[in-house]
Amino acid sequence: MPESTAASAALERAVRTIHDRLAEPLTVDDLARAAAFSKFHFSRVFLDATGLSPGRFLAAVRLQEAKRLLLATDESVIDICSRVGYASAGTFSSRFGQCVGLPPRTYRLRGGVGPGPVQRGPARAVPVRGRITGAGAGDLVFVGAFPGPMAQGRPVAVAVRAGDGPVTLHEVPTGRWHVVAHAAGPDGPLTFRGPVGDDPVAIALAPRALLDPPLLTALPELSLPEPIGRPEIALAA
User: Fold this and answer.
1) Helix intervals (H) in 73-143
2) How far, in Å, CA of 212 to CA of 214, rounded?
3) Integer distance in angstroms from the first to the last C-alpha of the chain?
4) Model confidence over 90-130: pLDDT tens digits?
5) CA atoms of 107 and 117, how far apart (whole Å)
6) Short-list 122, 124, 236, 129, CA closest to 173
7) Using CA atoms, how far apart are residues 215 and 188, in angstroms rounded to an integer?
8) Strand partners, 161
């Protein structure tokens, strides 16, 4: 087996361990053992492959499952907290709010719909233009600008459009941001993430892979205010 393929298989074993043992107090040592790597080597290879440390990835998967349970079950927040490996309901609620953009109970009451982009004060801002490929004709595609490679917290700018084509994130503050795109296709979720560099940004959606970081942010209402035939719908930050 080629070295890169062997490394990917080892990392996937670690990620499957996360999903299979989510309620347990897993450590990076446990994940490194699942991958059959030393802790140092595992942490380095995992960061290179996912853009996140193993600990951050583990925490993200816990919150991703909590999001699902809040919408798909009637379990209490305390019970969900325990099921995803948190010993403290206070710590869980605080972390959930930071990463998703809403407290757990509010997230459930809103049906998982987020408040939209962060409202920022006067500052120099520019539009970021992109072109989406890989989406189905009827797929609604969410595009957001985030501080890091994982979609967590509230984005600084968002846009929603149907299918492939041009999209614009208006009023993106100057600085370094990552574009994250998400759509629910017929074969499962599609995703893209990458730093903002070229303009327009090439946003090529692909099926989610096991090593893709979870999408934690509470998405805005994914509906178009005008007919789908319009080439793009952009929501200003």
Assistant:
1) 77-83, 89-100, 104-109
2) 6
3) 47
4) 999 999 999 999 999 999 999 999 887 876 655 677 888 99
5) 16
6) 124
7) 14
8) 141
CA distances from 51 to 44, 211, 217 (A): 10, 10, 17
Cα 161 to Cα 228: distance, rounded to the nearest angstrom: 8
Record the tokens describing residue 13, joined without a space. Answer: 């074993």
Strands 140-146 and 157-162: antiparallel
5, two tokens: 């393929």
Mark 38-47 as b/e (b = at least 16 C-beta within 10 Å): ebeebbebbe
Helix (H) or strand (E) holding 128: strand 125-133
For residue 166, what are its two tokens? 């041009």
Residue 123's pLDDT is 62
Identity of residue 50: T
Question: CA nearest 101: which of 118, 85, 119, 84?
Answer: 118
Q: Report CA-CA distances (Å) from 76 to 69, 79, 157, 177.
A: 10, 5, 32, 36
Contacts of residue 123, Cβ cutoff 8 Å, sequence gap at least 6: 173, 174
Domains of the chain: residue spans and CATH: 3-109 (1.10.10.60), 125-235 (no CATH)
The 3-state DSSP composition of the chain as helix, strand, coil percent (nearest 5) reads 35, 25, 40
3-state secondary structure of 90: helix
| Contact in structure between 207 and 190 (CB atoms under 8 Å) | yes
For CA atoms 45, 51, 56, 62, the dihedral sign is negative
pTM for the model: 0.85
